[in-house]
Amino acid sequence: MRLFTHRRWIYSVVLCVLGVLAAVATISFGYNTARASQETRVELVSTGSARVGEPFTVKLVVENSHNLAGFQSSVNYDAAVVKVGDVTFADGLKSNGRDMLPLGPTGREGLLILGAATCPGDCTSAEPWNNAKATVGVDGRVELADLSFYSDVPGSYELKLDNVKLVDPQGNLLTTVTANTVIQVR
Fold first, then answer.
1. Alpha-carbon distance 107 to 150, whole Å?
2. Residue 77 shares a structural domain with residue 151
3. Are 61 and 135 part of one and the same domain?
């Protein structure tokens, strides 16, 4: 009788421990999933395919931004088969009324470097900036630039983000994750 009671107690303890572990795992998974969906993410967004010789556009986008006021980034590509077309800066950083100063694009074969900074007033003015916009960046989804590429060779090509930095209006770095894209040229 005693052995039976002891076993029951051990089973009860094991079941309690397993229940606690399952609860902790569930809570942890939910927390990590929610946190991942709230991370500031810089990504190259494309249609995924293009025709040989025709330009294709890739958008440089920030998801879940918080107080964003400037950025810099480089895009690596295979210069032997992919060529850069136009680069157009989007107005996303200016959506709260700040002025924007584009930086670049520049680089060398296989590397495209670009960025932008915002100012509370006219970025080219020597006037001091004395207004509330000085401390307010943009939040949410922000389109930064449209990058045009083309290739005369069919294949699958990766465009890879590197050296990505986002800053708030005070110049503080914001934590980010990045996502690259692959283009199928047919």
1. 17
2. yes
3. yes
Enclosing domain of residue 126: 40-185
The tokens 């032997």 sit on which residue? 80
pTM of the model: 0.77
Q: Give the side-chain half-sphere CA count within 13 A for 138.
A: 25
Provide φ and ψ at 39, rounded to 5°.
Answer: -65, 145
Alpha helix positions (H), 51-155: none
Measuring CA to CA, how many Å separate 152 from each of 51, 54, 81, 160?
Answer: 9, 8, 7, 20
How far apart CA 154 and CA 51 sit, in angstroms, is 8
94 in helix, strand or coil?
helix
Question: Residue 70 forms beta bridges with which residues?
Answer: 117, 167
In tens digits, the chain (186 residues) has pLDDT values of 555 554 554 444 433 433 433 443 444 444 444 444 589 999 999 988 999 999 999 999 999 999 999 999 999 999 999 999 999 999 999 998 899 999 999 999 999 999 999 998 888 877 766 655 567 899 999 999 999 999 999 999 999 999 999 999 999 999 999 999 999 999
What total number of domains does the chain contain? 2
